[in-house]
Design brief:
- By secondary structure, the chain is an all-beta fold.
- It has no helices and eleven strands.
- The protein has strands spanning 41-45, 48-52, 67-80, 88-97, 100-105, 111-114, 118-129, 134-143, 150-160, 169-177, 180-190.
- Strands 4, 5, 6, 8 and 9 form a five-stranded antiparallel sheet that branches. A four-stranded antiparallel sheet has the order 7-3-11-10, with no helix packed on it.
- The two termini are 53 Å apart.
Length: 191
């Protein structure tokens, strides 16, 4: 039988080697692991011969585990409403998870958040995350005023695959305009 000089076969070739030629690796070195497959068993059922092929060996690849991640937008918390007067802020804008919209209010439909209180949103998204990947939570918020609206800025945070575990963790984005401070609070956990 003719063997190719490589451990792979050419697509339009007659010869497809079952294993590399013994002279290809004279020291016995093979660049990848060969898995010994179990032999098929022949069983008879009502005089019909059927061949049972056992499944592939159970090989564990810990570096290829996909994590199912739950991100929950808990709400908007007002730390300080500032010295403009009043004990509350009128907040509008948008909050995104990657390219998906989690929350949106325009300038005519703002929410009122009082000092030390959380405006609850409880928006939830579930998705899969592969090793080496990350997701980004971002937002652009404004504070509505009678004269001109205050831009509280654009904020974002990226959370990686290794930062996610089943016990969960909290994350927040802080938006600030002079002495007006609000945070957008998230809960992140692996399902």
């Amino acid at each position: 039988m003719y063997y190719h000089p490589y451990p792979y076969f050419k697509s339009k070739s007659i010869a497809i080697p079952y294993r590399p030629h013994p002279h290809l690796y004279p020291n016995g070195y093979v660049s990848h692991q060969w898995v010994q497959m179990p032999e098929p068993r022949v069983s008879s059922f009502h005089n019909n011969q059927s061949i049972y092929y056992p499944p592939y060996p159970n090989v564990h690849y810990p570096y290829r585990q996909t994590k199912t991640v739950e991100v929950r937008l808990d709400g908007i918390y007002c730390q300080t409403p500032g010295t403009d007067g009043g004990e509350a802020l009128q907040i509008y804008g948008r909050i995104m998870l990657n390219d998906r919209l989690l929350w949106y209010k325009d300038s005519n439909d703002y929410v009122i958040v009082r000092r030390g209180n959380l405006y609850p949103i409880y928006e939830r998204r579930v998705f899969n995350l592969e090793p080496g990947e990350y997701f980004t939570v971002s937002g652009q918020l404004y504070e509505s005023d009678t004269v001109s609206d205050d831009n509280m800025g654009f904020m974002s945070a990226s959370i990686g695959y290794n930062d996610i575990n089943p016990s969960g963790r909290g994350a927040s984005l802080m938006f600030k305009e002079t002495d007006q401070i609000v945070t957008v609070d998230f809960s992140i956990r692996q399902l």
